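subagent[fold] <- orchestrator: predict structure for attached chain, return tokens only, no commentary.
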Amino acid sequence: MLESLARVGLLTGTPWIYVVVAASVLLDVFLPVLPSGVLIVTAATAAAAGTGAATGHVPQNVPDILALILCAATASVLGDLFAYRLARRGGERLDRAISRSRRLSRAQERLEAALSRGGGALVILARFAPAGRSVVSFSAGAAHRRVREFLPWSALAGLSWAGYSVALGYFGTRWLGATWLATGVSVAALFAAGAGAAYLMRRTPEPAKA
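subagent[fold] -> orchestrator:
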């Protein structure tokens, strides 16, 4: 893993880092095992170290950090929409698959209730939870929710998650220096947020039965 992170550091100074980040974030809605969050944290850590953030100086290429956030957030929304459209066109076969999964059925019911009330906090929360983004995106499509109900919350979720991940890498380097310790602490904070989001999702009240 250390070797992979080192390669990310080498890519940070090239445009390829945005391609790698976008591809990872886009695909992890289908393959939640992809370490897209870790990749973003590591890229932000390397970028911050290269700008002098570790010494307390104001970085001169902050737009690179902002571009990283925008890149990750955009890829997140596109991945959500792709999964949403795929599930929406899945038909009865997908509906049967969801009905056989207690987890997916409960997620779909909660999502429908949340969006019907005009609230999308569940969509944002799910973006931080492991595989939560996948469950919510597929559930929204399978439930045939209107895209205008889902898309704004997906965009806010993607932006919040990307901003949080980049901030961990940036401020971890600023406070702890350009070391593996900074990366480790930032990644641990990312996983802690995911565990907290998963816990809160499990505690979300069930929708009232008719």
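orchestrator: received. Logging for downstream: The longest helix spans residues 147-176. Confidence is low (pLDDT under 50) at residues 1-6, 52-63.
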